[in-house]
Amino acid sequence: MTICRGVHTLLPALVLAATAACSGGNAESKTAAQPPKRPAVPVAVAVVEVKEMPVQIQAIGTVEAYSVVSVKAQVGGELMRAHVKEGQDVRKGDLLFSIDPRTYEAALAQAQANMAKDQVQVQQARAVLQRDTARVGQARANLVRDEAQSTNAQAQERRYSDLLKKELVSHEQYDQVKANADSLTATLRADEADVRSAEETVSADEAAIRSAEQTVRADAAAVDSARLQLGYTTIRSPVDGRAGSLGMNEGNVVRATGTNDSTLLVINQVQPIYVSFTVPQQQLAEIKRYMAEATLAVDAVPSGETKPVRGAVTFIDNAVDATTGTIRLKATFANQERRLWPGQFANVALTLAVQPDAVVVPSQALQTGQQGAFVFVVKPDATVETRRVVAARTLGNETIVASGRQAGEQVVTDGQARLTGGTKVEVRAPAARAGAPARGEGAKDTPAAKDAPATAPAAPGKGAAAKDAAPKDPAQDTPRR
């Protein structure tokens, strides 16, 4: 009886303990079933802008000298002196080289002497012409005089012939008059021959003068040639530019321009300068259309630099390269700072026009999904939503969107990997600039404070947002026994 009564006393106690244990386990499982609230995701944002954006064609260009001059000797001889140093800037007309001039000075002196001698011969021929011209005049005067005497003698001979028929004069008198008339006729023929001879002599004298004058002209040409050859012994720069390396040094014997000639120096004109680049042939019509309206600007960024140099398109090639399907263009740059150098590569941006009201977002804000490009837009309640966009073109670090965005909206530019639609975000403040006031000390007037959304939640661990963000301990909801 004693044992049975003890057993009956223990059973209710065990039942109560089991009931308490079961009720406590249900409370703990209920608390664990509630998921903790996730903290806000820190992100960086940017504001969608509407501004002017250029319509550009990007290409890789090569810098070319405006003109390249290979300096060669036009006469042979010993190179007496080089007046230019390698890499020196030269101006048009500057003396570059001197070749031994003595041989060419002697040739010039000889040519001048020959011309002086032939000029004397011309003067002598002209004197002979004057003498023979005077002889022609005298011969013509004699001819006129003898013609008058012959005419008178012939008239007298006819009178005496009539008188002889009438037997008024003797045969002796008639024969004397007739002989005188015949003599004057012969003299007249001699005078005519003398005039013709004198005229022929004058013609010969004139031909001799012309020949002598031609000889003098040839001598003058020889003098000019000798003087020109002598002038070639001093070589001067034909353009403004920069000298390269010397091909020959002082003391070498240079040859005249020909098959075995050597280049003494190469001068590149770098002010102005060209940048040559190619674009696809499909863009040729558009380029020509814009070029007909205005001069097209070109920005070139040399390798290793970030600041562009501004120039303008001045040349379009006359044919499309059939092997590559491209057309070559050249832009001219003043190159005042000499930032462009022949042979250098440069990034080229050809500006065709300016789009006035372009909707622009940072390129890093664009994400790619199964349905195309999209961005995360920060809503007023500090959550994000996905928004599909149509990207028109990219320029540098900015992308112009044709649709899907409005000016003034904020898009996420960093931290997208942790985002989905409806995720709560915290906008990170931009890095403080040098001299900017610290947070809480005038920060409300800074641009960063103005751009931050008014409804952005506080950081975890601060105020009410910290309570919502921190996960609850399940033991806190467990009822005490």
List segments where confidence is low: pLDDT < 50 over at least 5 consecutive residues. Answer: 1-32, 431-481
Characterize the main sheet: 6 strands, antiparallel, barrel
For the residues shown, what is the average pLDDT? 80
* Global Rg: 57 Å
Fill in the CATH topology of the domain at 103-231.
Answer: Helix Hairpins
**What distance separates the N and C termini?**
34 Å
The CATH class of the domain at 103-231 is identified as Mainly Alpha
The helix fraction, in percent, is 25-40%
So what's the oligomer here? single chain
Write the layout of secondary structure elements.
Blueprint: H1 2-33, E1 41-47, E2 49-72, E3 77-82, E4 89-90, E5 95-99, H2 102-165, H3 171-231, E6 234-236, E7 241-243, E8 253-254, E9 263-280, H4 284-293, E10 297-302, E11 309-316, E12 326-333, E13 345-362, E14 367-369, E15 372-378, E16 384-388, E17 390-395, E18 398-403, E19 410-414, E20 425-427, H5 447-451, H6 463-469
Helix pairs in contact: 2-3
